[in-house]
UniProtKB/TrEMBL annotation:
Protein name as annotated: Oxygen sensor histidine kinase NreB
GO MF term list: 4 iron, 4 sulfur cluster binding; ATP binding; metal ion binding; phosphorelay sensor kinase activity; protein dimerization activity
Top-level EC class: transferase
Catalytic reaction annotation: ATP + protein L-histidine = ADP + protein N-phospho-L-histidine
Native source species: Georgfuchsia toluolica
Role played: Member of the two-component regulatory system NreB/NreC involved in the control of dissimilatory nitrate/nitrite reduction in response to oxygen. NreB functions as a direct oxygen sensor histidine kinase which is autophosphorylated, in the absence of oxygen, probably at the conserved histidine residue, and transfers its phosphate group probably to a conserved aspartate residue of NreC. NreB/NreC activates the expression of the nitrate (narGHJI) and nitrite (nir) reductase operons, as well as the putative nitrate transporter gene narT.
Annotated PANTHER family: NITRATE/NITRITE SENSOR PROTEIN NARX-RELATED, NITRATE_NITRITE SENSOR PROTEIN NARQ
GO cellular-component term (any): cytoplasm
Primary localization: cytoplasm
Length: 471
């Protein structure tokens, strides 16, 4: 739920909320620290002022401590009068006079006089001349009387000085109610919190203005980026369409090329081949007529010999023309499946070389575009022929597999192989032609070979080609 809430926040609102939380935490920390410091300073100031005031009042009543460490009866009476019914007495809850060994010399609570307690750090520092004051929870052993009425008091340790010499003769411990301090601290804290809140509010408004400006800049840049992304997406779509058109054009070109080869083969068969056949027939007739002719045409050759030479040359030309015409056209593969197309290519090849080529076929679709079947037939025809002619391979193997919408064709052999760098440097029309046929359909073509390690030709052909628009 929290994650969904933050996911719905805009960047501006998230930054404003985050800034508000940070400033709020900072305000609370700063306000608390300043309030604590103010309270400490007010308590210290109150203790200093009251200690000086009290020292001036009772200095005449503590002279006797300097002589024997005890207060005289006259000094005790004087202190009792000072703390009974006077303004000073009204402000003081409890008054104690301590000796250096932790013994209470005098107290407004007579039950404590003469008792000895552990010397606390504040008492020891007061004997060194420092006035110590703090708000006490009155948990010490000597505070049993105070705990019965109050939970918290202002505790002041003030050194008492001898008037003539200025030496410290004792330490007065004074307990006051926290009313005076609470009023002073409360007013100071209120003013402090108002200032801190006002400063925080101003900083938040300034921060909000900066964030708003930055957010507007970021939003403008995001809109510009989105526009560029849309433009790029449109360009990529156009590029993909152009790429598909190129692939379709390549497929059509392959089909048209095969049709052209078929026409050329038919034209060769019906034209020059027929003319050569007629010439051979006439040449045979003339050779028979001149079989007994003994006329020579130079270098001891007779006319009959020349006729036989011409007849042999024409016969060889006609055979080569028939071979070329027979190798140009494809067999009728339009109605064949991919597996049947591969089997036909291997059958035609096996008939020429005289040995079988194993074919391994995984599950393949029954239908495939004609350009793919044409490319598969030519790829097998060329790769097998190259392996036999250039690699002296007689253990060739073919494997057809399907990966997604791709037909993977592997043609391997254990022939003598070749150096790929040499082939790349010198060029190889057979490999180049196979690569061009495959890549023009959007497929991929690779060759792995090394001298003495055989050859692997691998091609990937798309099993689907996009149809023309509006077909």
């Amino acid at each position: 739920m929290v994650r969904n809430f933050f996911a719905k926040l805009t960047l501006l609102r998230l930054l404003l909320a985050g800034g508000f939380v940070v400033l709020l935490v900072g305000m609370l920390f700063m306000g608390t620290w300043i309030s604590s410091t103010i309270e400490e300073r007010v308590v210290h100031h109150e203790g200093e002022v009251f200690a000086l005031y009290l020292d001036s009042l009772i200095s005449d009543h503590v002279e006797s401590i300097a002589s024997n460490g005890q207060l005289s009866s006259t000094d005790v009476v004087g202190l009792d009068k000072l703390f009974s019914g006077t303004e000073v007495g009204k402000r003081i809850v409890t008054f104690k006079m301590w000796s250096r060994d932790g013994r209470i010399i005098y107290s407004t609570n007579p039950a404590l006089i003469g008792r000895q307690f552990k010397v606390k750090p504040d008492l020891a520092m007061a004997f060194r001349g420092e006035t110590k004051s703090h708000l006490s929870d009155i948990t010490d052993d000597e505070n049993l009387f105070e705990r019965q009425r109050w939970s918290r008091l202002l505790e002041i340790y003030a050194p008492m000085h001898e008037r003539k010499t200025g030496s410290i003769v004792g330490v007065a411990e004074i307990y006051q109610t926290t009313d005076v301090v609470a009023r002073a601290v409360g007013t100071a804290k209120l003013k402090t919190w108002l200032v801190v809140i006002a400063a925080t509010l101003v900083m938040y408004l300034l921060l909000a203005a900066l964030i708003k400006r930055a957010s507007n800049i970021i939003a403008a840049q995001q809109n510009e980026l989105h526009d560029k992304v849309r433009q790029l997406t449109a360009l990529l779509a156009q590029n993909e369409q152009l790429h598909e058109r190129v692939r379709r054009a390549g497929g059509r070109a392959a089909a048209i090329n095969e049709q052209t080869l078929n026409r050329i083969a038919a034209d060769l068969h019906d034209g020059p081949a027929q003319g050569l056949a007629l010439a051979l027939m006439r040449m045979g007739t003339l050779a028979e007529s001149c079989g007994t002719c003994s006329s020579t045409v130079g270098k001891g050759r007779t006319v009959a010999d020349e006729f036989r030479t011409l007849h042999s040359a024409l016969q060889s030309a006609r055979d080569e023309l028939h071979a070329i015409a027979a190798g140009l056209p494809l067999p009728e593969i339009e109605r064949l499946t991919l597996t049947e197309t591969a089997q036909r290519a291997l059958h035609d090849y096996e008939r020429k070389v005289g040995f079988a080529v194993p074919l391994t076929v995984d599950e393949l679709p029954s239908e495939a575009p004609l350009p793919v079947k044409i490319t598969l037939y030519r790829l097998l025809q060329e790769s097998l022929a190259n392996g036999f002619r250039h690699g002296a391979a007689t253990d060739q193997r073919v494997r057809l597999t399907r990966t997604g919408e791709q037909l993977i064709v592997d043609v391997t052999d254990s022939g003598k192989g070749f150096d790929l760098r040499t082939i790349a440097a010198n060029g190889h029309l057979g490999l180049a032609g196979m690569r061009e046929r495959v890549e023009i359909l959007g497929g991929s073509f690779s060759v792995q070979s090394a001298p003495g390690s055989g050859t692997l030709i691998r091609a990937s052909l798309p099993l689907r080609l996009l149809e023309e628009e509006n077909e």
